[in-house]
Each structure stands twice: as structure tokens, then as C-alpha cells.
Design brief:
CATH architecture of the largest domain: Distorted Sandwich
Radius of gyration: 18 Å
Distance between the termini: 26 Å
CATH topology of the largest domain: Glucose Permease (Domain IIA)
CATH class of the largest domain: Mainly Beta
Structural class: alpha+beta
Largest sheet: 8 strands, antiparallel
Shape: elongated
Order of helices and strands: HHEEEEEHEEEEEEEEE
């Protein structure tokens, strides 16, 4: 299964950063450089907090779709998705700033039909053109009822590393952790046309917990 981070308070991808900063803080402190040590300690605390990996209460209602990430809903659009779905769908975009949890979660239960990484630019993630031009990773899910839900991790201006733990053919659960994006990003979730949208522009959402839609 994809959820390889259960019970770990800090995502494993953050350990090298936190460990390196802890070591640097200790060395500066032992050398008597208290001011630099204090500054690095501040960065250490922020980095550990950035990579936090909180537990979530996953909704159990049938057919609901939860947010793939924490952040603010910045777009709800009906549009043609040309790369993977190749049909008109509803895109719900959540922007994650550096203060949001960056562990990503599965929007629904199903089978992973494909995982496609696309290199690209690092435009500000809130810009519309980032949908197609930025570095990203797309995960295609198919539910038991045959509905297709596309979840796309999109890198941003600061983000330089997309992490995805799932592979094609895996069965996944709603709300299951499946990856993260380092230091600012966005999540696009594409729902089938006709799905009920349960959020509005400007809403704050929690990955794996906030219901953003309902499949019909």
C-alpha cells in the first residue's frame, strides 16, 4: 500500500534536512557561536514543522472525494484535460504555501491506473499556466464504479522536488498518504463532469479530511 508514513511525525524526506540542521546547530553551540547557533536552530524548528506529518480523520461516506493537500482553493474550473483524461472535467486547485502541510493524500479509493512525471518550469504555482507548464506528477485513479479521478502534484516557484510513493496497479484508500512536494506547491484534482463540488473559491482545506466533491 502507498501509506508508508503512518505514525511518523516528520515525513522521512525531511529527515536529512532536519538532521543536518541539528548537527550544524550543535557544532555552532559547542564552538561558542551562540547567535549563529540560535539562527540555525530557528531554521531547524521551521524545517521540522514544514515536514510535519499529522494524522487526519478520513470521511467514510460513499463516493466522496477529499482534498489531496492542505491549502486554499484557488480555482474551480470546467475544462478539457488534454493529457491523461482526454475529456472535459472539473479541476479543483489547492495552493499550498510554505506554512501548509505538504504531505499529499489520495482523493478517493481506487486503483492507480498510471503515474506520469513531467519535467517543466517552476512558475508561481498559483498562475493558471502552471497547470501545463510546471514540473508535475500525475496519478490517475479508477474507482470501483469506473469513475476516473486525476490527482496532479504541481511544483511551484520554490518547490524543486516532487515525491510520489505509489506505482501503477496499486490499490489505494481515500486519504492515504502518497507523496509530498518540497517548499511550496499546488494540487490539482480533476473530477468527472457532473460531480458535485463541495467547496468554494477561497476555502481552506485539509488533505485527506476536507470533502471537495462527490462522484455521481
Amino acid at each position: 500500500m502507498a501509506d508508508r508514513a503512518v505514525g511518523i511525525p516528520i515525513a522521512k524526506e525531511g529527515w536529512p534536512f532536519v538532521g543536518g540542521l541539528v548537527g550544524t546547530t550543535a557544532l555552532l553551540g559547542l564552538a561558542g557561536w551562540t547567535v549563529p547557533a540560535g539562527i540555525v536552530l530557528g531554521f531547524t524548528i521551521f524545517t521540522a514543522w514544514f515536514f510535519r506529518n499529522p494524522s487526519r480523520t478520513i470521511p467514510q461516506q460513499p463516493n466522496v472525494v477529499v482534498s489531496s493537500g492542505d491549502g486554499k482553493v484557488i480555482a474551480i474550473e470546467e475544462e478539457f484535460e488534454p493529457r491523461y483524461l482526454k475529456e472535459k472535467s472539473i479541476r479543483i486547485t489547492v495552493f499550498l504555501n510554505v506554512f501548509d502541510v505538504h504531505v499529499n493524500r489520495m482523493p478517493c479509493e481506487g486503483t492507480v491506473e498510471g503515474v506520469n512525471y513531467q519535467p517543466g518550469q517552476f512558475l508561481v504555482a498559483s498562475r493558471p499556466e502552471a497547470t501545463l507548464r510546471n514540473e508535475q506528477n500525475a496519478v490517475m485513479l479508477k474507482t470501483e464504479s469506473g469513475a476516473k479521478v486525476l490527482c496532479v502534484q504541481v511544483a511551484g516557484l520554490i518547490a524543486r522536488r516532487i515525491v510520489c510513493w505509489v506505482e501503477q496497479g496499486e490499490r489505494v484508500r481515500r486519504g492515504e498518504r502518497f507523496g509530498l512536494i518540497r517548499f511550496g506547491s499546488r494540487m490539482d484534482t480533476f473530477l468527472p463532469l457532473g460531480s458535485k463540488v463541495c467547496v468554494a473559491l477561497g476555502d481552506r482545506v485539509k488533505g485527506g479530511e476536507t470533502i471537495v466533491g462527490e462522484l455521481r
